[in-house]
Amino acid sequence: MPTLPHTGLQTPDQPRYEVTAYRELTLRRGFPFKATLSHGRVTIGSAENHGTGGDTEFVPRKDFNAADFERFADACRLNGRPVSTSLLLDLLVKEYNIARALRAHLRNGRTMVREVTADRTRITANAVMPETAAAREQLLEALGQPLTLGAVTEFWNGSNWEPLTGASDS
Fold first, then answer.
1. Judging by beta carbons within 10 Å of its beta carbon (0-12, 13-18, 19+), is residue 148 exposed, middle or buried?
2. Domain coordinates in residue numbering, the chain
3. How far apart are CA 2 and CA 164, in angstroms?
4. Which pLDDT value is given to residue 166?
5. pLDDT beneath 70, residues of the chain
6. pTM here?
């Protein structure tokens, strides 16, 4: 099964459902959002969260069979384990938002840095794209990374996540 690069979510080859648009509100008590889910160019529904601590829900379009999405959700894995539909939707939204942020950073010669442990991945900084091993080492030192003992610090090199240390020059 393919693994999505930013979340580690494993999804079936087909069908390929993904977030293609995202809207968020900032309220005093939460961040409600609505994300458009598509299969290719066809909208199948939305992922909606009311921002009150509840689960994210799949709201299918009237002409889409929700059971197809449930079968997709049942096949998805994170760290080899099944995921709930709510977690799947949250991970698809996270994948979309990180990819969107990375595209914006890359247009400006910047990248994002993340810290990966056995049970968690988190974005920790954005930085100028380190082009050499020496620049990667300097960035690692300047950021004071890793923040967590045993974590691996990685940067997005434009096509995949690469360790800041021990990475070869391009």
1. middle
2. 9-98, 108-163
3. 24
4. 54
5. 166-170
6. 0.88
